[in-house]
Design brief:
heterodimer, A: 268 residues, mainly alpha, MetI-like fold, 11 helices, globular, B: 299 residues, 2 domains, 12 helices, 0% strand
């Protein structure tokens, strides 16, 4: 027993080191004064300064944020609708196809999703002239399609774990279905919707492959810009950008974690 | 009467709730597959839309009369598909070998530690995928951190070429997809009654015996889900082989991307996608079944 737990402990230690050493090294080298990314040339924050003077970086970051905000909101609305349809409306025609379409975008390789959506947009443009150009709109549609799947799954699992008796009681007391949804169901699944919104936001902000397919000339998201730079190798300004993103995401996740723990303690 | 009208309105609203996401998915998820299929089967005339001027009047395009035939006859594609399956499978097994003891350790930790350990597994998943692959470029480089440390420790005197090898691709795949393995494993191991293992050992079972007779069968749903969640995306991976792999380590995701963007051969890229999809249909359906079972089990 003792021997085994020592084995488990060392695998755990190795696993976590494996997960975090690369991130730590990026953060460390972002403060490197040297232009050669892996030769230590003294402490400096000059790459951060250059980052904020780089219009290309700022423009693409702004585009990515705009897309991510729109995607997260649309995906939360559609995903919540889909999650409710799958858990609360019983059987309806085409339900099997529906639940299949909900989960498939999550497991579909990105190259296939990206290619298929681009071909759709190109065909639509030929047929009806829309979308006239690819960029913000097409990327938003593409991201919403896979992000809503994640929201639907989160909402669905929350709804199926949730006791239906509250909703039933409200209906027995004469509440109409629509009122019950807005007064009872939605407030109860609000944490799941917030989690879904955050996940959709991050997934959109992070996506490279699908955006590369469905974007047009001139519209470059932050990951697309990073990828075009990273192809050429490790550079100190990308280290600085990566560090900012890592810190931003980490603090966001920690805050969300802290809020959800506090909510759990209050209800539990 | 008013109540009936209100009720009707609610039923209408219910239909609306189904219809909106349904239509969205039909148009933006299902229809595109029909289009891919169409273009992969099209002859070059239809597949040369006017918006790709690169195609017009080029003799080379005529070679793609039948993209599928081309896929079958050109050995490169068969080799690439096989290599993708092989590398995704090896990466999945490596994830399992590392992820299982980790999930087991997390499930056995006391509650406060467990939450923290889980958070630390999920956190990298939220940080940009691209940047996590990029982080390994800085580590594996000839002048990278690992080589510098090894030289400084005098283990080696010349840098080892980690980058642009299959080894680097495996590192990238395991690193990127490890959370997908640990989380479902943890979910089943946490639900498992750990007293069973203790009971078996009290009754004289050796630890390895208790593991294979009790833990492993009970963890199987998690193992299957974890393996599929790693294998399926790893098969179509583009970024990792592009950034970490060498020119000879062609994986199918990268071939598809290049076929489309570099060679601008849309029918062939579509055919590559369809064949990849056919290869993945069985694992994808399997995964959906197991997840549906899991969801019903929760309810």
């Amino acid at each position: 027993m003792k021997r085994r737990s020592r084995f488990i402990l060392s695998v755990l230690a190795f696993g976590y080191a494996f997960l975090y050493v690369p991130l730590a090294s990026v953060i460390f080298y972002s403060f490197n004064d040297s232009r050669l990314a892996t030769v230590w040339g003294g402490f400096s924050t000059r790459w951060y300064g250059e980052l904020f003077r780089n219009d290309q970086v700022l423009d693409s970051a702004f585009l990515s944020l705009r897309i991510a905000l729109t995607v997260a909101t649309l995906a939360t609305i559609f995903g919540t609708m889909a999650g409710m349809a799958l858990t609360r409306f019983g059987r309806f025609r085409g339900r099997t196809l529906f639940s299949g379409m909900i989960t498939s975008p999550m497991v579909m390789p990105e190259v296939i999703t990206g290619l298929s959506l681009l071909l759709l947009f190109v065909s639509l443009q030929q047929l009806i002239g829309w979308p006239a150009q690819r960029g913000f709109g097409t990327i938003t549609i593409a991201h919403t399609t896979f992000a809503m799947a994640y929201v639907a799954i989160i909402v669905q699992s929350r709804l199926s774990a949730m006791d239906e008796s509250l909703e039933e009681a409200a209906m027995d007391l004469g509440g109409r279905p629509l009122r019950v949804v807005f007064d009872i169901t939605l407030p109860l699944i609000a944490p799941a919707m917030i989690a879904g919104w955050l996940l959709a936001f991050t997934l959109s902000l992070d996506d490279l492959v699908i955006s590369s397919f469905v974007s047009g000339p001139g519209a470059s998201t932050l990951p697309m810009l990073i990828f075009s730079k990273v192809k050429l190798g490790v550079t100190p300004d990308i280290n600085a950008l990566a560090t900012l993103i890592i810190l931003f995401v980490t603090s966001g996740v920690l805050i969300a974690w802290w809020i959800s723990r506090r909510a759990q303690r209050q209800t539990g | 009467m008013i109540a009936v009208a209100g009720f009707r309105r609610d039923m209408l609203w219910q239909r609306f709730t189904i219809a909106i996401p349904y239509l969205w998915l039909l148009v933006f998820f299902l229809a595109p597959f029909a289009i891919i299929l169409k273009i992969s089967l099209a002859d070059p005339i239809i597949a040369q839309p006017p918006f790709t001027p690169f195609f017009d009047g080029q003799g080379g395009v005529a070679a793609t009369v039948d993209s599928y035939l081309f896929l079958l006859t050109d050995k490169l594609y068969a080799v690439t598909y096989l290599k993708s399956v092989f590398m995704a499978a090896v990466a999945t097994l490596l994830c399992l070998a590392l992820g299982f003891p980790m999930a087991y350790g997390i499930a056995r930790a006391d509650e406060g530690t467990r939450n923290l350990l889980l958070l630390l597994i999920v956190l990298p998943f939220w940080i940009s995928f691209l940047l996590r692959v990029y982080a390994w470029m800085g580590l594996l480089n000839n002048h990278g951190v690992i080589n510098n440390v090894l030289i400084w420790l005098q283990v080696i005197d010349k840098p080892i070429a980690f980058m642009y090898t299959d080894f680097a691709i495996y590192v990238g795949l395991v690193y990127s997809y490890l959370p997908f393995m640990v989380l479902p494993l943890y979910a089943t191991l946490e639900r498992m009654d750990l007293d069973l293992v203790d009971a078996a050992q009290d009754l004289g079972a050796r630890p390895s015996q208790a593991f294979w007779d009790i833990t492993w069968p009970l963890a199987r749903p998690g193992v299957i889900a974890g393996c599929l969640l790693v294998f399926i995306p790893a098969m179509g991976e583009y970024v990792i082989p592009y950034l970490l792999g060498g020119p000879e380590s062609l994986l199918i995701g990268r071939v598809l991307f290049d076929e489309f963007f570099v060679n601008r051969d849309w029918p062939l890229a579509s055919a590559v996608a369809i064949v990849l999809l056919l290869l993945l249909v069985v694992p994808i359906v399997f995964l959906q079944r197991s997840q549906a079972r899991d969801a019903e089990g929760h309810a």
